[in-house]
Amino acid sequence: MSDQNTFEVHLAQRNLTLTVPPEKSILQVLQDAGVEVPFSCSEGVCGTCLTQVKEGEPEHWDMYLTPEEQEKNDCMMVCISRSKSPRLVLDL
Amino acid sequence: MFIKNTWYVACSLAELEALGDKPLGRTICNEKMAIFKGVDGKVAAVEDFCPHRGAPMSLGKACKNGLRCGYHGLEMGTDGKTVHMPGQRVRGFPAVKAFAVVERYGFVWAWPGDQTQADEAQMPVFEFFDNPAWAYGGGLYHVKADYRLMIDNLMDLTHETYVHSTSIGQPEIDETPCETKVDGDKVITQRFMDNIQAPPFWQMAMSANGLDPQAQVDRWQICRFSPPSHIMIDVGVALAGHGGFDAPADKKAYSVVVDFITPETETSHWYHWGMARNFKANDAALTDSIRQGQGKIFGEDMEMLQLQQENILRHPDRKLLMLNIDAGGVQSRRVIERHLQQEQTGATA
């Protein structure tokens, strides 16, 4: 994961845009901004942080979703997965 | 240090079967294992560690998928991979180690080292198990001492005179020098005592075999070490002058002391002891009485070894003496060292 990029997440419910730098996960950025989301394993196994995606293309790193579910790109594990598009819109 | 790429006796089948669908938690060469009989009747062993919260899998139960953790119901296969857990998707769960096991000779044997090298063809072969001409009885002691102290003990039977003075010890043991030979990986220490009075244990065995217990006998002890830590000791007495070890069956009482020594940690081991005999093989009461006698005798060794280990730990820098009577143990330790070096340099044993 050395080639991780910087991207934006927009939280639709809050109308808030945050920047995710390469060294941080979406979950960490959310927590830093005071946005509490449920989480547990922090490594894409347990499924607790499942978040709906409204726009953009996630880069799935988790082992929770099936490959078919990942292809739909309508949800993601924010603890480990990142973004292929410059901007993700999450239902948060 | 222990040889790990080899087969050790993990437990007797009877010990495991007595637990029913519960696993047996046992540490072998510092590897914590949960050994269990699957619902298909096959023996398996996995790391005694649930990938969920680190609970011991040995507190669980055998189930259709393999083994179910007794804490939150995680179910893993015999390969250590989680296959099911209520309310969870388990695809990303890390697998735990699985250990190769073989059920043979009334024991479960486990391979604690590199699983890719586990090879059933390397299982030792014994003529007296599964053989109707022979009877076997034995037991298990957990000994808080380095397994090599047990090897030393069994490869030098001089101690019998002192530790086992009321059963198999007799002064003639001290008075007769022993001889140690090395043949590749095998070490043999033997002692022959001719024309002596049998000690109490052997008088009992002579009576059981229809011989006059007061008769003069030729007595032998042939200790055979083979790696990793199996010691088979030919022991017996024959009516004096009939050829000793080679005397005809009706002139002797003869058996093999079976010692499977399984390291647990650096300073503890599981000692599976027993006796195989080829006289009165169908006499179950005799098997029981020999087991009781042997259990008492070997309990005397356990007490000695545990306190010896305590002393050694208290004085780690003190060098111990290696006398002529210790040659069997010294040579056996050399064989172990050689295998350890082979294991560490990656060469095939």
Explain this structure:
The complex is a heterodimer of chains A (92) and B (349). Helices cover 14% and strands 29% of the residues of chain A. Chain B has 349 residues and is an alpha+beta fold. Chain B folds into two domains: 115 residues, Rieske Iron-sulfur Protein, CATH 2.102.10.10; 211 residues, Naphthalene 1,2-dioxygenase Alpha Subunit, Chain A, domain 1 (Alpha-Beta Complex). Chain B has seven helices and 17 strands. Chain B has a seven-stranded antiparallel sheet with strand order 11-17-16-15-14-13-12. A six-stranded antiparallel sheet of chain B has the order 1-10-9-4-3-2. In chain B, strands 5-6-7-8 form a four-stranded antiparallel sheet, with no helix packed on it. In chain B, helix 2 crosses helix 7. The radius of gyration of chain B is 22 Å and the shape is globular. The chains are: A alpha+beta (92), B alpha+beta (349). Chains A and B meet through loops of A and loops of B.
Radius of gyration of chain A: 12 Å
Shape of chain B: globular
Number of helices of chain A: 2
Q: Give the terminus-to-terminus CA distance of chain A.
A: 26 Å
Proportion of residues in helical segments of chain A: 10-25%
Mean of all residue-level pLDDT scores of chain A: 95
What would the principal axes of the Cα set say about the shape of chain A? Answer: globular
* Main sheet characteristics of chain A: 5 strands, mixed
The largest pleated sheet of chain B is described as: 7 strands, antiparallel
* Terminal Cα span of chain B: 16 Å
CATH topology of chain A: Ubiquitin-like (UB roll)
Question: CATH top level of chain A?
Answer: Alpha Beta
